Amino acid sequence: MPDENQIAIPRPFIDLFIPKGAIKPSEPRAVIAERYELCEDMAQMLTEHATRRKLDLGVPEEMVLERIHRGLVAEGSVVSGPEAGWVVCRLAEVLGWPMPDWAVMPPS
Length: 108
Hints:
By secondary structure, the protein is mainly alpha-helical. It has one domain (3-103). The protein has helices at residues 11-15, 29-57, 61-72, 81-95. Helix 2 crosses helix 4 (81-95). The two termini are 27 Å apart. The relative contact order is 0.15. The mean pLDDT is 90.
């Protein structure tokens, strides 16, 4: 079975690739799966960094997430703006932190 059939991509991530007013994604499933794997890996890798920043700086969780988001949308980033928002939401979800209002995942 091809790898692409084994990856369960969450609907909120797929929604990042559906233009407003459209019903189908703008990219093929293989591209979306590749982007999802990158973004999921990034969220998982950022968990330790985010926890450490919160403790080191003594700042609220939302501020840590905001700083990470700014880094993810900086010039030269490997993720798009919508993907950066998804990564931050997924990071908050993994850490059990409140979802920042400015980075809410699209409804599924």
